Amino acid sequence: MSGDLTGRTIVLTGASAGIGAVAARELAARGATVVPIGRSPEKTAAVAAEIGVEPLVADFASLAQVRELADRLLARCPAIDVLVHNAGGIVPDRRVTEDGFELTLQSNYLAPFLLQSLLHERLSASRARTVVTSSMLHRVARISLQDLDFSRRRYSSLQAYGQAKLAEVLFVEELARRTPDTGITAVAFHPGTVGSGFGRDSGGGIALLYRTRLGRTFLLGPERGAEPLVHLAADPGEVNGSYYHRMRPAATSRQGRDADLARRLWQTTEELLGAEPHPGVR
């Protein structure tokens, strides 16, 4: 792992608890200026106080809050060296946000995509790295561009979460393809099955794993779960377009390697969000 991060600004979503909170502390201890973002005002403020900065609060179930967050980041950060998309979660049933999107899709994929788009010029000028917390569960899902929000298919919390994580893998692939135009590099990773607050309300076998004493014996602690996030945010090595299973590069699913699907998903997402195409990007 790299050591001194003095002078580097790292924006970290999902920083109020779990691996995000651990990573915020570790990256700050290495000298980085960390901007912690979370949904809970109290928890995010506590993490920010530990590292001596002001917190930012946003709920990714609201795209209006994502837009407000982007404005605050642009006002606060003259440069952004690393943007970590770590916020997300899984829900037991199909829920629709105020923006009209299925909640799992929005909180894990659409909101980070929008934030990336709104910060694009600042990230490009900084030649930033984007780090995305994905999941090995992307392997169990398939992308349906015609039904991303499960309004036509039978809803499954596992399938909805897996699809959102697969969308993140494709997002990283397409970001990496655009690097010659933008200067922004990107990498995704699976942190391992971490024993944090994630998953307890998901229903089914996943919830059982998180709620029972026996299930928790198979889970990693947040400190270990944060290791790949810290490594990929801090390490200057060439990882552009890669997917990591914890600390090692790994193959993705077949759809996760589909460059044409990555391009079409990007275009579909821009249309859904009404986002302007990135300037100068083919």
Topology:
Layout: E1 9-12, H1 18-29, E2 33-38, H2 41-51, E3 56-57, H3 63-76, E4 82-85, H4 103-118, H5 120-126, E5 129-133, H6 157-177, H7 179-182, E6 185-190, H8 204-211, H9 213-216, H10 222-225, H11 227-234, E7 242-245, E8 248-249, H12 259-273
Parallel strand pairs: 1-2, 1-4, 2-3, 4-5, 5-6, 6-7
Antiparallel strand pairs: 7-8
Helix pairs in contact: 1-2, 1-11, 3-4, 4-6, 6-12
Would you give an account of this structure?
- The protein is an alpha/beta fold.
- It has a single domain, classed as NAD(P)-binding Rossmann-like Domain (Rossmann fold, 3-Layer(aba) Sandwich), CATH 3.40.50.720.
- The chain contains 12 helices and 8 strands.
- The protein has an 8-stranded mixed beta sheet with strand order 3-2-1-4-5-6-7-8, with helices on both faces.
- Helix 1 (18-29) links the parallel strand 1 (9-12) and strand 2 (33-38).
- Mean pLDDT is 91; it is low at 208-212.
CATH C-level label = Alpha Beta
Structural class: alpha/beta
Q: What is the average of the pLDDT values? A: 91
State the helicity in percent bands. Answer: 40-55%
Question: Secondary-structure element sequence?
Answer: EHEHEHEHHEHHEHHHHEEH
Low-confidence stretches: 208-212
Main β-sheet description: 8 strands, mixed
Rounded radius of gyration (Å): 17 Å
CATH topology: Rossmann fold
